[in-house]
Amino acid sequence: MVETFAVTDPSWSVFAQVTMPEFSGMYWVQLASRVLHVLGAIVLVGGLFYQRMIVLPRLRASDAEAGTDPWYAGRRGAWAMWVGIATLVLLATGLFNFVQIIRTNDIATSYHMIVGVKILAALVVFFLAAMLAGKSPLADQFRQNMKLWLTACLVAAMLVVMIGSVMRSYPRHLKPVAGPTLIAPSN
After folding, report:
1. Over 90: is that where the pLDDT of 175 sits?
2. Which of these, 34, 33, 39, 135, lies nearest to 79 by C-alpha position?
């Protein structure tokens, strides 16, 4: 005798999904965009975290006064390149992901406000990361107070991550797909 199991408890809904994704070409493009977005954030925020939590506590006042580059050990240009690459990836994939979500889902107007706050916080992260890695006189001024600006940058980055988590869990309803209308021939 075979016993059937009906899923009536909503906590089991993870195991009894009603729909599966359609593994079309656009699915793979959207997946790649999400993965690149996360990887860009890992590179940028991970590098800033490393500087703030690992490099900063090890510096001595004599290192900064010596006129050398204690933060980057002569590799500031390499870090600046990665800041630029990560920023470009985050901007491109973030815009693409936002357009895809808005194009395919009916979402409350408040979602747009949340996205706007996330974008502003992300722009703060991009600006501060670029200033801390830059080679201009303004960048040198920012590096004079590296602890403050790294901390501010990491706080803004945490805000971006928190807002992104809210956005990911925001209620969405797929827009109806408008396909071609079939008309039967009249005989």
Report:
1. no
2. 135
